[in-house]
Amino acid sequence: MKLKIYSLVAAAALTITLQSGCKKDFLDKQPFNQVTGDVAFTTAAGAEKLMAGVYGGMYNDYHIWDYMINGDVTADNAYAGGDNPANIQIDLFTTNSTNGNVGRDWSGLYANIKNANEVLENVPNIQDPTLDANSRRNQILGEASALRAYFYFHLVRLWGGVPLVLKSPTSLEEMQKPRSTVDEVYAQIIKDLESALPNVRATAANKGIITKGIVNALLAKVYASKPNPDWAKVQQYADATISGGYSLMGSFDQLFDGNHKNNSEAIWEMQYDGWGGPNGRGNWMPSVIVGTGWKRFCTPTNDLVAAYDAEGDVIRKNASVTFNNASSEGWSDDYWTKSSYPYINKYRKDDVSDSYFIRLADIILLKAEALNEQSASGWSTAKPLVDQIRGRVNLGGTPATDQASMRLAIEKERRLELAFEGHRWFDLLRTNRAVAVMNAQKDGKGNSLNYNVTSAKLLFPIPQAELDRNPNIR
Question: What residue intervals traverse the membrane (predicted)?
Answer without folding.
Answer: none
